[in-house]
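Predict structure. Chain length: 407.
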Amino acid sequence: MNYQFDAFMTIVAAVAVLLVGYVFVNKVSILKKYNIPEPVAGGLVAAAITYILFKSSNITVNFDTTIQQIFMLMFFTSVGLSASLVKLKEGGKSLLVFLVCVVIFVLLQNVVGISLAKALGLDPLIGLITGSVTLTGGHGTAGAWGIIFEQEHGVQGAIALGMASATFGLVIGGMMGGPVAKFLIRRYKLAEEISPETGRNEAPPASQTAPFEFPEKTRLITADDAVKTMGMFAICISFAYFMTAVAKGQWFELPTFVWALMCGVILRNILEHGLKVQVFERCIDVFGNASLALFLAMALMSLQLWLLADLAGPLVIILIVQTIFLALYLYFVTFRIMGKNYDAAVLCAGQCGVNLGATPTAIANIQAVTNTYGASHKAFLIIPLTGAFFVDIVNAFVIQFSIGILS
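Prediction complete.
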């Protein structure tokens, strides 16, 4: 039996999931202790319920994917609209160094996947699928490349395998970031936990904040500001759909969310620096954080966990090794290269989402950590652009290069 939720009921369910996550994180000490994001906690509870319904009564629950995609596009649009050239300069050398760390790991992620696949007697392309295609690329990249692997390279079941692998990454990426950061912070005594009340004060001026920073703090906005900001979001999302249709099958074809992000960057800086029009940072932050929470809740409550149960033993081994390898890389490489300080620990939590999940998971990870230990301005400058823009472009070239070597 199949139950289909429309857009309205999907939003209602997502809000309920967020409330459940809030209760669980605040009542279950281990979740709070290891900084598990509220959408992740609530989403996994919902996914577990749908799994039980499927296994016990063969009942499946499907949610509206269109509204989920719109919230995803709103999230990436907010990243673009927040990308003022002034703030991009603030990232400076640290942004480039962290990007290098991420790029190197993307290459190593494929080396690990392909090597293990060969050692286990599998097609090397399966190792690539359980590498950066799905773990760094996420569900969207898994679906797009899955078709290519099936039709052009004869890898049967590549789409299902990709979705299962991406699901594994999304779950583990959301659960791993907080504990990794907590381990580093406590081991090297980088910060102390802050009082919960400090998260309810007004946020600093917009000029002193980065995208998605201080999500718990009050931001005063007006109806006029909200309407104008919604107009900018609508322009960017409409442009994204238009360019997706125009670029389909062309050499410049890109995922829809990349077009939304690019339009946001261009629109923001034309308005701010070209036309001298004030951009409403507070509205962008509010809409971006709300979209992030709702999208992540929808993504996790829509997970079909039985796909993970169907993974063959060798594939589970590959994914577990990938997870352990990322943890070791963060400890021995990223944390040390980025300065071995509090900002570096928060960046490690973000990289768990970037390379083992999705950009929204990365943002949720660093928000969970900073809500507990205090602000990390550098992390909020670096993670959104690295995860939402640069890494997807790099990953596309890495996948093409890897396929060329294996073909």
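Summary: The first strand starts at residue 2 and ends at 4.
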